[in-house]
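User: Okay, second chain of the day. Same drill as before: sequence in, structure tokens out.
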Amino acid sequence: MRIVAGVDGCPGGWVAAVWSDAGVEWRVTPLAFTSLLAALPEAEVVAVDVPIGYGPRDCDLLAKDMLGPARNTVFVVPPEDVLRCADHAAAVALARSRGHKAISIQTWNIGARIIDATEHADARCGEAHPEVSFLALAGHALPTKHSAPGLAARMVALAPAFGDVAALLATAPNRARADDALDALACAWTARRVLDGKAEYLGAGPTIAY
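Assistant: Same drill. Structure tokens below.
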């Protein structure tokens, strides 16, 4: 049986869509990346919506180019020492001193997740970006996931792979928001493509699969 997992961040941890020939099983884990991996022992491929690898990375720029109007959904990952600064102000100052753009507060807020994933990802793990996966699924960029039309479009895009997506969302853990669960499903779709040898990749160093 082929078993993969698609993972997205959710409040306080991770939500995983474990996809096998029998269907989808949801799991929620604590924030520590080692806890996430320990909860997915059967998954042959784990596709995670978190950067795995420090910047500068060409995969980030390629993803931005690919997404066009939705390019702002991609975080450009800064160098490791910028992420390890004591606070956001220090990170901004260091990035600017190196000739980089100032690190956004959104990127700073997930810095600990980036470091944890980069240090603890195992051979099963790969990076996915849900918006890139949805673009591949739908053939075009979708409306923002923070809108009703955007959520509906994502459910339509996922239906050929997962069937009744509304029913799947009804079984998702309460801690995971609807967009978290949909992003995890998009990552699971990418993980299956990796397992089947059908995935495409952005980047020459760290890569983003879709």
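The beta strands are 3-10, 13-20, 23-30, 45-48, 125-128, 201-202, 208-209.

User: Thanks, on to the next one.
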